[in-house]
Structures are given as structure tokens and as C-alpha cells.
């Protein structure tokens, strides 16, 4: 059942009595926060809205302010919110909402703020707030409402250029978390990497968040039925979060898949029970590593040596020969390779293999092949040089 709430005409905020508000705040907050309220009073009186915004953000980030942020926003900020940069207003409102324990009250707070944002004039603020509302609904268990708000946000975001990274980050974060809740691995993988591209992994995520994100990305890479190129993930610093943890074998397994190394895969397979979902999907993972082994086998060959017998493929993928044809057809259907099958002679002619990010070992192999090719060119040049001289 959706928890979507009707957006009513916003009620006007209670009239601000500045002196009374400041006096109450000074008597009820820790002394460390008093300079903030003194600044609020001066900046409000002088109508320095930009400077007041910066001071408010500093206040909302202060660890001692948490019990007071909702009251400050509702009693103080609402009085002049129309005069503020709307994106900054939404950023502040989003921070404040996180201090509201009750998800339904939090949703009502954000929905009320949404009704006061002009979706046409302040599109980035509108998208950011919709993404935060969607995330609140997700926590509340309302997947349908989450998807509805995600789609609304994307409709606007897709038309914008030069978007603030915080807006993109909020959208991609809720989208990734939504697809995680739905166990849709490939969309989770895509949106999670896009989210990480919008944040500073070392400062914007806690160590616990980095570890969880790296773990979930690894699992989604293994189980995504369209993910056969792990390159972007393998190069990402998020994977360092797995080092020296109980999940460090997941990082090893990612590189094992990228190399198409069936021997290493079999050596790591006894660890799969630590991740029951990998254990449950072992047949799929086995087929996936065989496909990766096929890609690697083709990649290692020279362009003029890519007609492979079923027997050779069976040996390199450790499959029975009667399963090779199905494997090749699967690779063709997934567009991992291009080519043709000769079922009579039991051969596959491969004309193209999907580009991918290479490990250091693979780069070394490629460099060696390039060196051989250069040597061949030099030999041809030496043979042709006398004939060119005579012709001249």
C-alpha cells in the first residue's frame, strides 16, 4: 500500500517574534550553541540571507544541535525560506528531517517542504527533495511510492545540465537502494557506481558504508545476468574497503572472474557458504566463469587465430564437449563475442570479443603480443628494403 500523501496548500508559518525566539533558544540550548543564535539575530535583522544560510548550515552540522534542528527550521527558517537559495533550503531541510525518528512524521515534514518549492523555477531543489522523499518511503517499506517519486525526479533530472553533484548523488543513491531492495542486481550495480561517481568515497561515506557498498557491488557483479565487464568496479577505490576483512575473498573472486580463471574460481568456491546467495546461485556462477574463460581465451589469441575447435574450448573452460555449443551460443546472445558456429566440423570462428578492462598480467600479455607484432613488421620492412631501393 502506497504511503503517498496529498500535497495540500502549505500553511503559513507562525509569525516569527525574533527576540522571543532567540531568548528561548539561549535559555534552552548548550552554551556552545549560543554564538549561532546571536549570529542568527544579527544576520536576520540585516537581511543578509546568504550569510545566514551559511551560518544555519554550520549550525545544522554541529553535533550538539541535533535535538534543536527541527524547532529552528520550523520556527525560524520557515519565516524567510522564500528568500533563500532553494537548493540550499532543501539541503538544510533534508538534514533536519534525519533528526525526526518517526518515518511518517519525517515524510510529512518533507512533503510539506515539497509543497513550498516551485518545481519549475527550482528544478534542482525539486529533484533533490523528491529523492529524499523517495528514500524516506523506501525506509518506510513503500516500494511503490519510492518508484513513483524516483520516476518523477528522473523525468526532471534527465532534462537538466550542469547539475549539482549533491542532486545527482541523492537520486542515484535512492535508485541503488531501491534496486537492492528489489534484488535487481544489474540496475543496482549501474546506479551504485553512478552514485559513487558523485561523492568522495573517503570523506562522504563512513567505513561501515564503504564496506557495505563494496560488498553489495561485488555480489551484484557476480549475480547480474548482463554484467560481464567488471572493469569499472575493479578500478574503483571502494574495493579497498574489503581488504583485511571477512569479505576480502570477494575482491579476489572479482579479479578471478575478470581473468576467467576457473582454477582460482574452484579454489574460492568452498567460501561461497559464507554468502548463501552465492551458494544458491552456484550453477549460474559456474556458467558465468566459463563464459569469462571463453572471453579470455579468445582475447589471448591473435586476430588471425580465432577459429577454435570445440575440443579446445572444452579444455579451456573445463566443460564437457557436448556443452560447448550451448556456451558459445550463450556468449553470442549476450553479445560477449561475435562470430559463427560450424556444427559439422565442431568449430567456432570468433571475429570480435567484448572490450574490457585488463589486469596487470593481461596488459603484460598484450604488450608481449604487441612486441611480437612490431618484430614481424621490422622483418617485413627489412625484406622489402632492397626491392624498394632497386625500384628507386
List keywords for this structure.
392 residues, mainly alpha, 3-stranded antiparallel beta sheet, 64% helix, elongated, disordered N terminus
Q: Describe it for me?
A:
Helix 7 (123-139) packs parallel to helix 9 (165-181) and helix 10 runs antiparallel to helix 12 (207-223). The protein is mostly helical and 392 residues long. It is elongated, with a radius of gyration of 29 Å. It contains 20 helices and three strands. Strand 2 and strand 3 form a beta hairpin. The protein has a three-stranded antiparallel beta sheet with strand order 1-3-2. The N and C termini lie far apart (86 Å).
What is the helix/strand order?
HHHHHHHHHHHHHHHHHEHHEEH
Q: What structural category characterises the helix and strand content?
A: mainly alpha
Across the major sheet, the strand order is 1-3-2
Unreliable spans are: 1-8
Strand content: under 5%
Distance between the termini: 86 Å
What would you call the quaternary organization? single chain
Amino acid at each position: 500500500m502506497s504511503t503517498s500523501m496529498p500535497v495540500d496548500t502549505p500553511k503559513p508559518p507562525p509569525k516569527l517574534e525574533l527576540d522571543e525566539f532567540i531568548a528561548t533558544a539561549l535559555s534552552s540550548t548548550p552554551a556552545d550553541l549560543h554564538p549561532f543564535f546571536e549570529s542568527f539575530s544579527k544576520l536576520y535583522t540585516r537581511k543578509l540571507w546568504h550569510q545566514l544560510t551559511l551560518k544555519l548550515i554550520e549550525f545544522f552540522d554541529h553535533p550538539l544541535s541535533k535535538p534543536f534542528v527541527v524547532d529552528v527550521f520550523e520556527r525560524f527558517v520557515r519565516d524567510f525560506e522564500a528568500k533563500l537559495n532553494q537548493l540550499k533550503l532543501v539541503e538544510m531541510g533534508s538534514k533536519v528531517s534525519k533528526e525526526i525518528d518517526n518515518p511518517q512524521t519525517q515524510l510529512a515534514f518533507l512533503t510539506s517542504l515539497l509543497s513550498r518549492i516551485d518545481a519549475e523555477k527550482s528544478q534542482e531543489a525539486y529533484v533533490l527533495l523528491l529523492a529524499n522523499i523517495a528514500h524516506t518511503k523506501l525506509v518506510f517499506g513503500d516500494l511503490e511510492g519510492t518508484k513513483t517519486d524516483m520516476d518523477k525526479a528522473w523525468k526532471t533530472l534527465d532534462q537538466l545540465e550542469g547539475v549539482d553533484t549533491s542532486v545527482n548523488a541523492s537520486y542515484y543513491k535512492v535508485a541503488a537502494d531501491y534496486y537492492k531492495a528489489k534484488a535487481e542486481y544489474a540496475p543496482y550495480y549501474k546506479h551504485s557506481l553512478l552514485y559513487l561517481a558523485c561523492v568522495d568515497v573517503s570523506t562522504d561515506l563512513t567505513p561501515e558504508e564503504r564496506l557495505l557498498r563494496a560488498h553489495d557491488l561485488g555480489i551484484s557483479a557476480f549475480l547480474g545476468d548482463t554484467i560481464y565487464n567488471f572493469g569499472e568496479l575493479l578500478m574503483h577505490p571502494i574495493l579497498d574497503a574489503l581488504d583485511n576483512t571477512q569479505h576480502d575473498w570477494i575482491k579476489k573472486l572479482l579479479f578471478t572472474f575478470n581473468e576467467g580463471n576457473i582454477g582460482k574460481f574452484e579454489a574460492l568456491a568452498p567460501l561461497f557458504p559464507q554468502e548463501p546467495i552465492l551458494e544458491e546461485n552456484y550453477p549460474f556462477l559456474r556458467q558465468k566463469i566459463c563464459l569469462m574463460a571463453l572471453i579470455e581465451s579468445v582475447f589471448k589469441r591473435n586476430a588471425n587465430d580465432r577459429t577454435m575447435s570445440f575440443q579446445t574450448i572444452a579444455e579451456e573452460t573445463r566443460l564437457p564437449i557436448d556443452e560447448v555449443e550451448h556456451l558459445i551460443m550463450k556468449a553470442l546472445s549476450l553479445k560477449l563475442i561475435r562470430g559463427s558456429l560450424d556444427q559439422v566440423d565442431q568449430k567456432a570462428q570468433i571475429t570480435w570479443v567484448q572490450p574490457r578492462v585488463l589486469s596487470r598480467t593481461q596488459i603484460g600479455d598484450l604488450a608481449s603480443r604487441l612486441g611480437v607484432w612490431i618484430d614481424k613488421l621490422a622483418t617485413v620492412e627489412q625484406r622489402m628494403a632492397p626491392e624498394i631501393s632497386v625500384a628507386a
